[in-house]
Amino acid sequence: MNILSAGKAGDLSPRQIADLKSGYKKGRTGQNIMPLQDPDDIYQYKRRLGFDRAVANSSSKIWVFWNDQWNGQVIADSHQQITVRFCYQNKFFRITSVYARCNSMERLELWEDIEAVADSIIEPWLVGGDFNVILNAEEKLGGLPFTHAEASDFAHCINNCALSELKSKGKEEKVVKPFKFLNFWTTHHQFLDIVREAWQIDFVGDPFSEFQAKMKKVKKALAEWSKKTYGNIFERLATLEELIRVKEIPFEIRPTQDNRCALSQTEAELRKYLHIEEEYWKQKAGMKWFKDGDRNTKFFHAFVKGRRQKLHIGEILTSQGEMVQSNDQIGAAAVEFFEDQFRENDLLNCPEMLENIPRLVTQDQNEEISRVPSRDEVQTVVNELNGDSTSGPDGFSGTFFQASWEIIGDDITKMVRASFCGQRLPRFITHSNLVLIPKKEDVKSFTDLRPISLSTFANKIISRMIHDRLVKVLPTLISANQTGFIKGRSITENVLLAQEIIRDIRLRNKWQNVVVKLDMAKAYDRVSWVFLAKVLRKFGFSEILIDMVWRLVSNNWYSVLVNGQTYGFFQSSRGLKQGDPLSPTLFILTAEVLARGLNRLHEDADFKSFGEKRLVMKMMGVLAKYEQASGQMINKNK
After folding, report:
1. The pTM is what?
2. How far apart are CA 5 and CA 33, in angstroms?
């Protein structure tokens, strides 16, 4: 039904116009309390919303829009309601749109108006809008106390008009949301005191177990503190907006200093919570590039909403070719698919592929890479990591670590140093959530989704520490024609070079030529850990470094995020985390085996032209051996 009614409160934003449009385009009857402008603007909004007809009630606080096929006629109009009689396909019905006053005495006029309309009703009748009153306390969350006297007037009106309340359909389920650290907590003057008190516990055990115990206590303390200090910020906003409406009435009647102060205090608290709401949506949006300006809450919320829609999976084909639609079915299928994708296959031993890797890492470089870091080095890494990045399964963002460093820094340092000294990383550190990013618009199967790991911040600290040391030696290990992930090199150099080569071949050489463009299917997900260790050893990295890397990559545990819910808990036996600071460095080291294999083929005395079938076959042989040794697979579709 393409009919909308709206209550007046201020200015209508482009986003609210879009919300109204989407409502009526989906065939909904809208009873929306939306901010509207001057009464003279009703026809402007009629055009912008795409309706044929528009009317306002006598106070111009309710606007009703409809299209011509509904054939509407106003039959009752007052300050708090407007009733329109519609005819569609020779069927008549009436809709009364309500925008009630805040004062209970003023609402008595509304109940009389509605009862007057009811006296002449012989057709289907819908009454809806903002009544500014409820029937029972169970319908209220927060705000002013429930008043039985006001509810009684409303109930008498409903009974006298023989109206029936439309109940919501479906079962209300309370979903326990996992803990999520909110960055705006750090701006509260009590924040550090809460963390400090919770962190001071007596614990006997290894650094990882001690860190886990303290984080659990802090998580509980922050959750309880936030509930008492902030509560539900959205409910609080609604309550404050309601309070302002209530306090505006006595101020308009008697603008005394007391009434002014009462209103100003509530407005100040509302501004505070509006800022908190903006910070909340800004964190959810993860838009670290966005510059501060006027309130951007609506923009951030729209961004989050758009991203959720993009990530939403309505239906998908399982590995068995069955189409599933429920969240639980999709979640179970996702766990099965990615558990298989991260499972190691039988690989062939191809030692000749590693023969092209020289020993290049020196003793001094090994000692520097494996050196146990100081507290200052760990702090530098913590501050360099993006504090606003999405949190892992533990719910703590980097902002918590950065803001609480003076309290938790010693324990983080002990944990990182323990990792460098050979201690195995526990599951709570290496556990990651997989968020599934669509590779294309029309997602049909899990192969159309890219799994990105949301790791714990503690895991990122250790990974980044090793990464920062490895990147210093990479330029001496990686061939000059490899430009990705190497400091001082740009991948665009190879793009330009490829364009020049292809143009040169086309203009200068009249003989047959072959240009090969390669793409690895699920490149990060298929990396063999055994192959990675062999590559590191061939380059000359110490066993200490190889062991550190092995403990990082071989103890990965995953859960899959599907439509906001977490499914599964499984361990991988191959692959590198997409989104981990260390993964690009490790991947380029394994890819260097292929680069040096192809370079060796080019240097072969028999190598003359890619156009010869025999030499093309030799090149394909190098690719096949690399696949067999590394676990990589050439994407034949590309």
Report:
1. 0.67
2. 8
